[in-house]
Amino acid sequence: MAIIGLIFAILGGIGYWWFRAQQVKGAADTVIDAAGRARGMISRARFRQRSGQSVLAGVDSPGMAVATLLYSLTALRRPVTLTDEDKIDTMLATVCRMNKQDREDSMAFAAWASGQVADTAEIVRRFLPIWTEALQQPERQELIDMAVTVASPGVEPTDAQAAIIRRLREGLLPR
Predict the structure, then answer these.
(1) pLDDT value at position 172?
(2) How many CB atoms sit inside 10 A of residue 61's CB?
């Protein structure tokens, strides 16, 4: 009888400490969830600050502006494919000399922004000041060449694409 009592006492002790461990685990999970929610709130606040009132207002780097323009130009012809994205990414790496993280951020923003901005001409209008301030004459010509390359993959650009490229050329290479 004493052995049975001892077994129950041991099982009771194990059960008690298991219950206490589960309470500690629950408290730790609550703290981790709260930290994750706080991190998410910070990320959303940064994104809202970056996007500002306008979708394009938060863009301050010429590289991100270029990615947004190229992505939108491609989307004027057809839905953007992974091949198109790879082509734009390669141009950003070679011509704009952007690092991998900046290219990934720029491409993610470009994909989102091109779906939010109805008129690609607005992208050119909004980003011309950034490009004219940051780019020298040869770099401006490279930007126009990249736009032509994206807009006409073996075929003539559409009328909408040609109008955007013409507006870009007029804004970057004044006569």
Answers:
(1) 85
(2) 15
